[in-house]
Input
Amino acid sequence: MWVSRRAGAVPGSVFALMDAAKGRARAAGRGIIDLSIGSSDRPPPEAALEALREATRDPATYRYPLFSDTLPLREAAAAYLARRFGVRVDADREVLPLIGAQEGLAHLLLAVTDPGDTLLLPDPCYPPYLGAAAVAGLNVVTLPLLPERGFLPDLDAIPDDVRPRALLLNYPNNPTSAVADAAFFQEVAAWCRARGTLLIHDHPYAELTFGAYRAPSALEAGISGVVELHSLSKTHHLGGFRVGFAAGDMGALAALARVKGAVDFHAYLGIQRAAAVALGLPDELGREGACVFEARRDALVPALREIGWEVVLPQASMYAWARVPGLTDSVGYAVRAAETTGVAVSPGRAFGERGEGFVRFALVQPPGVLVEATRRLGTVSVQGENALPTLTR
Ligand SMILES: Cc1ncc(COP(=O)(O)O)c(C=O)c1O
Output
């Protein structure tokens, strides 16, 4: 079968390898602790589920949703941005519902770039960024995210003659869990404006913040020339519902709406209603969910430090990013660890070259399970020989 160069260019996923390793561990009778996927294990807000249940009984929701039908969600998104970040957007032209941030990003790249354009991407990054860039035929220039810079990119290191069409960032960050402040976004937005570069900020962890820390929006640095992608997958635990929104530059969003018009018909109206309800809920409800992840962080990080792994205490996100002393093959290690201990983590290399030597933990299990996972991982040699190859559970 002939397949397109575009399809062939999408990088294969290390997660398929991990899946196979988990399968082998299961077949060997090991109990699996899966910390390899950042899918929230928390329930969505009851009010959102109720809105969806009610919608399924309303025949007006059964037809194709048109753009005009998305107004309540667009208005709820605009109200959320105003309440939470003090950002004012026009619900008609500066907000667009998405079928998740990942869908939005892939189509946004098709809408604002041409094949061969340059896209600046962080390394490490959320792997689907590379796939979306490949589908759009883009020339990817990577920006190293280094621990000594707090995993923030160094824009001064980019030569003056590089004129990227877009720069894609994500804070709170997956996989490093690093955060950025409002001053950082001001600087980045100014840099982008000077080069005619669209700033795309992927913001699915906006509300998964710990302690007194609150994540800013890139839109606080201006609406023009910036597009921010929001998701209800993590903030409201609605990952399976596939819903989010884009907000920002009206020209970019008009182009995105055009591309999406050729591809999809918006999310089911009931899901849009559930999302609108969720976005309007008091912020304290979101804090309760975030506290659950914070307690897990507080259990995992000391346990990791006890086995000698280096990890910065995350202020946000649902991940811990640990540097493992002596680790040079994170994929081999993660596969071996899953097979021999049943603990599945994400190898840092899956997120890019700069991820080598690291392992990512998704905080998707209770504190005690995270501590037990760490104990098991500590038995696996980073060099290849398993210290305890015959663990049975
Ligand atoms: C950085 C980042 N962007 C986007 C997504 C996916 O968001 P959505 O479920 O809204 O497509 C994820 C999911 O893990 C993510 O980590």
DSSP finds 13 helices and 13 strands in the chain.
